[in-house]
TrEMBL record:
Predominant subcellular localization, coarse grouping: membrane
Positions in coiled-coil regions: none
Protein name, UniProt field: Cell division protein FtsQ
Family, per entry: Belongs to the FtsQ/DivIB family. FtsQ subfamily.
Function of the molecule: Essential cell division protein. May link together the upstream cell division proteins, which are predominantly cytoplasmic, with the downstream cell division proteins, which are predominantly periplasmic. May control correct divisome assembly.
Record-linked HAMAP family: FtsQ_subfam
Top-level division of the source organism's lineage: Bacteria
Domain POTRA: 36-105
Membrane topology: Single-pass type II membrane protein
Entry keywords, A to Z: Cell cycle, Cell division, Cell inner membrane, Cell membrane, Membrane, Transmembrane, Transmembrane helix
Lineage of the species this protein comes from: Bacteria, Pseudomonadati, Pseudomonadota, Gammaproteobacteria, Lysobacterales
InterPro entries named in the record: Cell_div_FtsQ/DivIB_C, FtsQ, FtsQ_C_sf, POTRA, POTRA_FtsQ_type
Length: 246
């Protein structure tokens, strides 16, 4: 009986060892770079600004530990630090593959010329932001970002279908004065926000009459008057008089 019991104890000891050793091996790095290296990187993404080379460069320093020892959180942080990356999902697939799903930031507008606002309302830095002329240009104190975005939407709605003008920019000065920029480059100074709707409506109601018979639009308008506004037209182009030589 004692011999049989001893045999069972030894058998259980062997079974436990077989179960525990792989776990210990992973924890201690036994299955590292020399065993089961990561050899494939598969990426799901729609790239507009992030390049495959940028992703490869961010990931490669974290792949030298092998399949089991590769830290997914380290990989996620490395890719997430790239300027245009919004979020990253990282998974392993046995025996040698790292799977990445990358979501790019979608720019909504430029912020103070050289930064961008994502569609999630976050400000971020990205190379070439100041060259993206097709995006709305929003300017103001960082602490009032949400207010500037809201006013841009309000101004665009006021101009919709009226006077053949479109809004491409909004600015809020340090003193709290609002102004908008049209697609022709004209500036419209509005002043206080609580007067914006009334002042814009007054200006847009008469604008078609002001431009009737004129070639081109205005250059500047100041709506901060009690019963009207001031408007400045572009300087007329002068034609140089040709010199007559002797």
């Amino acid at each position: 009986m004692k011999g049989a019991a001893a045999t069972r104890i030894v058998a259980w000891g062997i079974a436990i060892t077989l179960v525990v050793l792989p776990v210990v091996g992973v924890m201690q790095g036994w299955f590292a770079a020399g065993r089961w290296p990561v050899t494939q990187l598969k990426v799901e993404a729609e790239f507009a600004h992030v390049s495959a080379e940028q992703i490869r460069s961010a990931v490669m320093p974290h792949l030298g530990k092998g399949f089991f020892a590769t830290d997914l959180e380290d990989v996620r942080r490395a890719i997430g630090a790239l300027p245009w990356v919004e979020s990253v999902e990282v998974r392993k697939r046995w025996p040698d593959t790292l799977l990445l799903r990358i979501y790019e930031r979608q720019p909504f507008a430029r912020w103070n010329e050289n930064r961008l606002i994502s569609r999630q309302g976050l400000v971020f830095d990205a190379p070439g932001a100041d060259q993206m002329g097709d995006l709305p240009r929003l300017n103001g104190p960082d602490s009032r970002l949400a207010e500037v975005v809201s006013f841009y939407a309000q101004a665009r709605k006021a101009f919709e279908g009226r006077a053949q003008l479109s809004i491409v920019g909004v600015s809020l000065s340090e003193r709290g004065s609002w102004s908008v920029t049209t697609d022709s480059g004209a500036e419209i100074v509005i002043g206080d926000r609580d007067q914006a709707d009334r002042r814009l409506a007054r200006f847009l109601d008469v604008y078609p009459q002001l431009v009737a018979g004129r070639h081109g639009g205005f250059a500047y308008a100041d709506l901060r008057y009690t019963n009207g506004f001031a408007i400045r037209w572009p300087e007329p182009e002068t034609t140089a008089t040709p010199k007559v030589g002797s």
